[in-house]
Design brief:
Two copies of one chain form a homodimer. The first copy, chain A, is mainly alpha-helical. The first copy, chain A, folds into two domains: 85 residues, Arc Repressor Mutant, subunit A, CATH 1.10.10; 138 residues, Up-down Bundle (Four Helix Bundle (Hemerythrin (Met), subunit A)), CATH 1.20.120. Chain A contains ten helices and three strands. Chain A has a three-stranded antiparallel beta sheet. In chain A, a hairpin with a 3-residue loop joins strand 2 and strand 3. In chain A, helix 6 runs antiparallel to helix 9 and helix 9 packs antiparallel against helix 10. The structure holds a DNA duplex. Chains A, B: GO terms for molecular function: DNA binding; DNA-binding transcription factor activity. Chains A, B: This is GntR family transcriptional regulator.
Chain lengths: 229, 229
Amino acid sequence: MAYEATALLIDDFDSRGPIARPTLHDAIVARVRDMIIEGELTPGARLHEGNLGKMLGVSRTPLREALKFLVSEGLLELSPGRGAVVRQFSAKDVHDSLIVLGNLEGLAGRLACEHATDAEIREVRQLHDRMMDMYEKRDRLPYFKLNQSIHSAILRLSKNEALVSVHNVLQARLKRIRYIGNEGPEKWAGAVADHEDMIGALEARDADRLSKILTTHMEKTWERVRNAI
Amino acid sequence: MAYEATALLIDDFDSRGPIARPTLHDAIVARVRDMIIEGELTPGARLHEGNLGKMLGVSRTPLREALKFLVSEGLLELSPGRGAVVRQFSAKDVHDSLIVLGNLEGLAGRLACEHATDAEIREVRQLHDRMMDMYEKRDRLPYFKLNQSIHSAILRLSKNEALVSVHNVLQARLKRIRYIGNEGPEKWAGAVADHEDMIGALEARDADRLSKILTTHMEKTWERVRNAI
DNA sequence: AAACAAAATACTGTATGCAGCATACTTGTG
DNA sequence: CACAAGTATGCTGCATACAGTATTTTGTTT
């Protein structure tokens, strides 16, 4: 019975790429991370090792290892003798993180203008166009996902691994909040306008302009999200 | 016998602060991190759980948890079935990290100009003056430590927790490199000049200037370190 | 009835044991 | 003598068992 659940976990994991096979550790980390992002585990909730382990079909040992991993990522907090708790982010925490994220994306944009190939920029343009389609249809979820893809793509095009990894950590902490904070129609239009500017600046390889747009875009994100906290 | 080593570990840990008592987990993490920074564990070295555990007087279970933590921090890499290895940083990795660090410190400087109190700036000035004393005496190690303290202080004065935490992660990855890369006299003078500018800009609360100095300072660090890799 | 103390329960932290896999060594063959 | 295959050793990955500590519940006293 326990093994059925384990099998499920591993099936969930993306098995493409012949280099590294999926490990149970990675599967648990990904699963718990999702549970936090999707709100199954709410901020402040205690993670009971016994129950959670049974739930996932895993013994406490690998589960605890995964929890330590998530503590290091900043998604959980650990009080000695009392186990792991889903981390609470105050409004200031979120604001602080968004400032840093804005700065990192600004840097990424600058580097992307320098290092991206024309073909890569065309790919981002395609993502953008598909996103605009979804906006026309007011289809929120695909829009949201494509939006995320575009930001990730710009990060990737910076060709700076350290930047990508740091950005991912911060991004993961806020994913839950952004998941909730779905903006109203008027602010949505503003975000779309930003994105039009973005792709334009990238295609023109105007590093200063792209950098500024990205940083400012993140400040606006704060305005959109601040009430949802 | 095993317990003697454990006790030692815990004694190493700073026990001030009545809130959180030192945990074995934190002690192991700190110890292994130090072993990497100080070169006791060289990049590419495999970490044998049995031996390392005996060495530290700890069983494999908490040791493995600590290793997972350090993997998440980016100091170790994990290949399934083959355990943990001290991560190798290529020259590009280091360069990329320094670019990001420079950007983060630039942001920190900008925020510090805004949020630091006069008293806090005076404290940085004192650190700076003491560092200059050490420079006069050509006393490298205290100079190095005070230098680090000043950069940390500026980060702290940004009053941005997310920024501090992200900076720490990246800083930890490079600590080993900086530990090696001790510059020659002519470049040392350049670094000192930068620091004079820094404290001046901070006291004047000139955010743009401080930000630029910090970012540029990091680019110069690359020049100093690049040959040592 | 309320508050405090004590005991029982339950959860975390650590050690150990076992199974599966990777690697190294040895032996046999071309 | 070299190379390949099979075997043996050793290490990682996971589960379970035990010890120590926090929490909750119950009983007693004011």
